[in-house]
Every structure is written in structure tokens, then in C-alpha cells.
Design brief:
- The chain has 5 helices and 5 strands; from the N terminus they run ααβαααββββ.
- The longest helix has 61 residues.
- With 195 residues, it is an alpha+beta fold.
- The N and C termini lie far apart (130 Å).
- It is rod-shaped, with a radius of gyration of 41 Å.
- The chain has a 5-stranded antiparallel beta sheet with strand order 1-2-3-4-5, sandwiched between helices.
């Protein structure tokens, strides 16, 4: 009795088996779309991650620049407030007109206009009394800031001498200044001496 075995003419290669299996599989039609979905899903996910990182970087940059501008504005308002307080408390009877001019550079036109009517009598009083006053800002801080308006509180030590008291005495002042951002500069719009 002879047994007949049907053998293929050549041996099957592994890939042929897989291809035959895939082609013969009832799920073969589902495999192609699934592979296609996987092919575009990875680049899409990568693009989404890159886009998210880009949005986060731009948001961080905008907030950082905004913070720097805010700090620059606060610093400029504070420095201008300190200088205005010094200008308001530094006068010498020998340079009275120049001192008033320097003071006017650190105040708004509205503030200067209010002082203009008293300017001549102020200068006359300095000269007659031989008054010399030198202010020094010892402490300063912002009590409010909006970007266009700032409130600055300044502590000033002023050495004051006159014809009646040639030996200079130190006087302490606290000045609450309202600063306005005017034509690119911070200027004092109001000054209140606090006792």
C-alpha cells in the first residue's frame, strides 16, 4: 500500500505564509484601514504636541514681557517720585530760580501752574531769609500703580538753615506724591506733606 503525499514543488517562505494568511483572513479588510489610521495618527499626535508646546512658549513669553514692562513702569514711577520729593525739598537762596526751574521739570504743567502764582513770593522769601534746604530721600515705596498713575510715599530728611539759624537742622518729612505718566515721563501731579 502506497501513501501519496502532496508536497509543494518548493518550500513556503515565511512571508508567503503571512501574506496568504492576511489575504485569507476574514478580518483582512479591517487590517488595511487600521494600519492606515496608525500611519497618520503618530504624526498627528506629534504635531499636536508641538503645537501645544508652541502655544505654551508664546503664552510664557507674553507674560514674561508683560511682567518686565510692569516692573519697569513701577521702578520708573518710584525713581521719579523720589526725585520729585528731593526737588520739592531742595532750595538755596543763591540759586532759587534754578531750583524752582528744576522742580518744575519734575511736576506736571497743572501742578506748575498752581505754583506759578506763588513763585515770586517763594523766591523772595528764600532770599530774604537766606534759606538753604537740602532734601534727601531716605525711603520710598509705591502705594498704588495702574500704569498711568502711581502713588509714591517718600520719607525725606532735609537739612534746613537760614539767616536766623545758620546751624542746619534736620527735619523729617513724609510726602505722598501722585505721579502721572505724562509725555513719556513720570511727573508729580500732587504732593501732600504728611505730619
Amino acid at each position: 500500500m502506497a501513501v501519496i503525499v502532496d508536497r509543494p514543488a518548493r518550500p513556503l517562505i515565511e512571508n508567503e505564509v503571512v501574506d496568504r494568511f492576511d489575504a485569507a483572513s476574514p478580518h483582512a479588510s479591517e487590517g488595511a484601514p487600521r494600519r492606515w489610521r496608525l500611519r497618520w495618527l503618530a504624526p498627528a499626535a506629534g504635531a499636536l504636541v508641538v503645537l501645544t508646546l508652541l502655544v505654551a512658549a508664546v503664552t510664557f513669553a507674553v507674560q514674561t514681557v508683560s511682567g518686565f514692562r510692569l516692573e519697569q513702569g513701577r521702578g520708573a514711577a518710584l525713581a521719579a517720585g523720589r526725585q520729585a520729593a528731593v526737588n520739592l525739598t531742595t532750595f538755596d537762596f543763591t540759586t532759587a530760580e534754578a531750583d524752582v526751574g528744576r522742580m518744575n521739570e519734575s511736576i506736571t504743567p497743572k501742578f506748575a501752574q498752581g505754583f506759578a502764582s506763588d513763585k515770586e513770593s517763594f523766591i523772595k522769601g528764600l532770599r530774604e531769609g537766606k534759606i538753604k534746604m537740602t532734601g534727601e530721600a531716605t525711603e520710598a515705596g509705591l502705594t498704588g500703580y495702574t500704569g498711568q498713575v502711581a502713588s509714591v510715599l517718600v520719607a525725606v530728611d532735609a537739612k534746613v538753615g537760614s539767616a536766623d539759624q545758620p546751624q542746619a537742622q534736620t527735619r523729617k518729612y513724609r510726602i505722598n506724591l501722585t505721579m502721572l505718566y505724562h509725555d513719556g515721563n513720570w511727573l508729580a501731579d500732587r504732593a501732600e506733606f504728611i505730619s
